[in-house]
Amino acid sequence: MEPRPDTAHRHEIRVTWGDCDPAKIVYTGRIPWFALDAINSWWVENLGGDGWFQMELDRNVGTPFVRLEMDFRAPITPRYPLVCHVWPVRLGETSITFRVDGMQDGALCFSSRTVSVFIDAAAFTKRTPPDDMRAVIERLLPGVE
Amino acid sequence: MEPRPDTAHRHEIRVTWGDCDPAKIVYTGRIPWFALDAINSWWVENLGGDGWFQMELDRNVGTPFVRLEMDFRAPITPRYPLVCHVWPVRLGETSITFRVDGMQDGALCFSSRTVSVFIDAAAFTKRTPPDDMRAVIERLLPGVE
Amino acid sequence: MEPRPDTAHRHEIRVTWGDCDPAKIVYTGRIPWFALDAINSWWVENLGGDGWFQMELDRNVGTPFVRLEMDFRAPITPRYPLVCHVWPVRLGETSITFRVDGMQDGALCFSSRTVSVFIDAAAFTKRTPPDDMRAVIERLLPGVE
Amino acid sequence: MEPRPDTAHRHEIRVTWGDCDPAKIVYTGRIPWFALDAINSWWVENLGGDGWFQMELDRNVGTPFVRLEMDFRAPITPRYPLVCHVWPVRLGETSITFRVDGMQDGALCFSSRTVSVFIDAAAFTKRTPPDDMRAVIERLLPGVE
After folding, report:
1. What's the total number of domains in chain B?
2. Which SUPFAM superfamilies has this protein been placed in (chains A, B, C, D) (predicted)?
């Protein structure tokens, strides 16, 4: 997947006993949840403290997912924090693509790429992103020189 | 993704209030969990009642995921059961690829494709699948004429 | 806790690998979730197919929990289905108390007692239960002779 | 429940969109999970960085729950961090009782009391707590003068 820019947002997750399965590693079903938490955290960081909850309720903008891809590279355990690096890689007319890399103790545990569409939350219809969101995303897209 | 064969295993999930987010649809983070439940159910159905728990503890065979892809096509709600159709699409030397289609009220909600590797559970090292598992999978691979 | 009447609703849960922690038994944090699923199932069974989702969205009635008690008696594993028995034990002016017993292979795994209040969902204010709900509950309260 | 001592451990949880149900507040089934995360965090804080995972795998000591009580006082939302205060209230021969208070924006959202027993993890048999754990707990029990 795409290489990580220095500007990627860093989101740290405390992995616990309850996240693990009998193989003593995080259950695969939990990992997409972690990646989504990291993306939500990207919005909180870059949208003045507003995550999906505030985007939906206060701004009437939803960003439902239409696509998720993940490569699982190494098991995740509670022995280290899970450091997630999040960044946008593409902004379409009505969609946004995020990458998340999850790392523990310097090793890559997973890489994900997700695509979400912007919607009018009340109407559940596609829309272009509001100007302030577009500005934030464009500023953080890598490789735009 | 690959078309669904008639022999796909059918796994039904009762979607509830607690699976939904404030948009009144199932939270995206729950959906990979559903797909995994469906794959586990495929093993239970085809391996004499043994799912991942028994495979790991009684047979010393693990099948950790190395790849997950999902397309989300329509929201999932508690108004209908979620009918998951599961089938293997490829058996490699040490890996297996499953497809899952999730449907509600006749409409496709999601399609997923996952790749798992066979491992010796105690040693956490790659291995070829045991003969009985290989036989079960080969019998159910579509398009092998 | 209160003894179980013959009329208790039976709700069966497929326990899986992903519900278990490294101790190879269901993680404690999952068990209240199971008990709640069983209570929701009681409503579905007794309210014409309507669970919390339909109660809230279609009937504007919420039943948020104000109290939960659970005794954990035996570990839960994926080796057996988890059979939950659910029944109401008390109907107050604006509240309802449910009991849930969770069993595997004939042994009691947990007992729970929960108290919920009836609310107007849109206003989030306390209310008495609608007549049809009250009738259903009163019919199934044990020991009312 | 018992009043909170000044020495209670503080554990902060980022509540998100995915924790909420269609009522736009955290789903009840998630709240015991939060309380357990807080108790695990108490161990991490007071046992040299070891939580349940390390206790079980490195020290062969488990602390399964036998009892859980929770009072839900106010809805939890993603608008504020959930600040959990955790402290032990009783140390028995082979058991420990923890209290957790969860607060948002200065208001009490839930209070919980849980009882766990100490076990030899490999044998799954009751035991007294190891000396170092006992010392840590006794030092933090309130009201022992």
Report:
1. 1
2. Thioesterase/thiol ester dehydrase-isomerase
Reference B26, options B92, B68, B70, B60; nearest CA is B70
Partner-chain contact B22 D20, CB within 8 Å: yes
Q: What is the CATH number of the domain that holds B13?
A: 3.10.129.10
Q: How would you write the pLDDT of chain A (145 residues) with one tens digit per residue?
A: 889 999 999 999 999 999 999 999 999 999 999 999 999 999 999 999 999 999 999 999 999 999 999 999 999 999 999 999 999 999 999 999 999 999 999 999 999 999 999 999 999 999 999 999 999 999 999 875 4
Q: pLDDT tens, C39-98?
A: 999 999 999 999 999 999 999 999 999 999 999 999 999 999 999 999 999 999 999 999
Q: How far is A39 from chain B (nearest CA, A)?
A: 12
Nearest-Cα residue of chain D relative to residue B20: D21
| Token pair 């946004």 in the structure block, residue | A96
Question: What crossing angle do the helices spanning D31-46 and D52-59 adopt, rounded to 10°?
Answer: 60
Structure pTM? Answer: 0.97
Residue D4 lies in a domain: no
Chain B partners (3+ C-beta pairs within 8 A): A, C, D
Dist CA D89 CA D3 (whole Å): 10
* Of A52, A53, A78, Cβ closest to residue D51: A78
From C58's Cα to the closest Cα of chain B, the distance in A is 11
Torsion, CA D110, CA D113, CA D118, CA D123, rounded to 10: -70
Nearest to A27 by CA among B65, B31, B58: B65
User: Does pLDDT of D144 surpass 70?
Assistant: no
How close D76 comes to chain B (CA, Å)?
A: 13
- Contact list in A for residue C23 (CB cut-off 8 A) is 22
What range does the domain containing A33 cover? Answer: 9-140
Q: Is residue C63 part of a domain?
A: yes
Q: Is C22 on the interface with A (CB under 8 A)?
A: yes
Does residue C4 form part of some domain?
no
Quick one: C67 exposed, middle or buried, by C-beta within 10 A (0-12, 13-18, 19+)? middle
Q: Which helix (H) or strand (E) element contains residue C95?
A: strand C95-104
Instruction: Tell me whether residues C52 and B24 touch, CB distance under 8 A.
Output: no
Whether ipTM tops 0.85, in short, is yes
Cα separation values, A114 from A1, A27, C36, Å: 12, 20, 32
In a domain, C3, yes or no: no
